[in-house]
Amino acid sequence: MVAEALLPVIPQNITVHLGAPSQGAENVTVNFVDYIKNVASSEIYPTWPEAALRANIYAIISYALNRIYTEWYPSRGYNFDITNSTAVDQAFVPDREIYENISLIVDDIFNDYVVRQGEVQPLFTQFCNGTTSTCAGLSQWGTVGLANDGFTPYQILQNYYGENIGIVENAPVADVENSYPGVPLKIGDAGNNVKIIQTQLNRISDNYPAIPKIDELNGVFGVDTENAVRKFQQIFDLQPTGEVDKSTWYKIKQYYVGVKQLSDLVGEGITLSEVQVPFSNRLQEGNQGVGVKTVQYYLNILAYFNPALMMVPLNGIFGAETTAAVRTFQAFYGLPVTGIVGINTWNTMNRIYTETVENLREGYSGNRGKLYPGYFLSEGMSGQAVRDLQTYLSLIGKNYNDIPTIPVTGYFGEQTRAAVIAFQNAFGLDPSGTVGPITWNTIVQQYDFLIGEQN
């Protein structure tokens, strides 16, 4: 699949807690643009020079986005994004008057934010009024003097946050939900959420070396990832299951943000390479590649068992036929009928496929290769699916000189990984050494062919 980067977006809405974090107070969800206008009208004076107003509004936007991007409060068990307590956040006064000139500026720059050059997270733009309170960040009253001296908004921000800042302009606006994927991640799972956990655990292990490093940050939840998760859970007093449930997900997020100091004015920061993910989050007509082929494979298997669905050519090209099949699948399972495979459609497709495979009657496949088991196979795993894989590869290895013959042990060790890589190289697949649906299907096709030849 095509690698993408998970970059910050501007949320449609933000949930504000009307009090200190632990105070029993009301939560209100408001439009993000309206929130920024409210905070700016509460924090600064509309009579200030425009350059000062813009600098302050940049800081207000970036501060709020940092809280959202780091999930500062959700990772601590709270059900809001930010508070209106000026002791820890920024002022928000429900139903207050919004100043017209501030409103116009916010409309102009609400989807711009401050970053450190070379980093992607919105900068934690700490600020204070500069008179009754001072801090290491921006002085609100100090911006007035700088503006009167002819400083531009960017120069004002540089004065307080350093020369190495930048402004991200016209960031996309989207619905932003809590990051937990909704179901626990476990061995055999694959996807961008696994890559996120792997990246975060490896960084946390720099500070907590008892957590073993994960060698390959490939988005495949293998034994090494399971071991790292289990050790993290042991260190931080969580049930050591080796699976990433909601509490583990957010505890990992909390400590990742902490060790990188993402919610401090001076922190380590997140680089673009750290947010690269191996799988596309959105597939649609015109796309090509293994991600499309995986969707087509799933659609075809499901259509075999459900005549209400459509089969498509397994060619890795997202054309009109695939669009129609996706739309049919979405309609059947009550999803928005878009013809686009986004996260919700993929999760549903993956769930239905797994349930279909699990519910097949014993002996369904006869002497031929079985259907993909519904989870990735990788080094260190064991069980019947590994034994099946080795059975297929063993026969293939006897007929292809480039593919080694391996014993059927039920354990995925170095020999099995080498055979998988050799097979992937021989058949033009990504030589990852892991077995997902396309590698499995290609192996089974070759096995079935050889079985047919023998008969």
Write the layout of secondary structure elements.
Layout: E1 4-5, E2 10-11, E3 13-17, E4 27-31, H1 32-43, H2 50-70, E5 82-83, H3 100-109, E6 113-116, E7 127-128, E8 138-139, H4 140-148, H5 153-161, E9 165-168, E10 173-174, H6 192-207, H7 223-235, H8 246-260, E11 276-277, H9 290-305, H10 320-332, H11 343-358, H12 384-399, H13 414-426, H14 437-454
Parallel strand pairs: 2-10, 3-5, 7-8
Antiparallel strand pairs: 1-11, 3-4, 6-9
Helix pairs in contact: 1-3, 2-3, 2-4, 2-5, 6-8, 9-11, 12-14
Overview of this protein structure:
- The protein is mainly alpha-helical.
- It has 14 helices and 11 strands.
- The strands form 5 sheets. Strands 4-3-5 form a 3-stranded mixed β-sheet.
- The radius of gyration is 26 Å and the shape is elongated.
- The two termini are 37 Å apart.
Secondary-structure element pattern, one letter each:
EEEEHHEHEEEHHEEHHHEHHHHHH
Roughly what is the average pLDDT, rounded to an integer? Answer: 93
Distance between the termini: 37 Å
Q: Oligomeric status of the shown chains?
A: single chain
Number of helices: 14
Name the beta content range: 5-15%
Main sheet record: 3 strands, mixed
The rough form would be described as: elongated
Rounded to the nearest angstrom, the radius of gyration is 26 Å
Helix content estimate: 40-55%
Uncertain stretches: none
> How many β strands by DSSP?
11
Strand ordering within the main sheet: 4-3-5
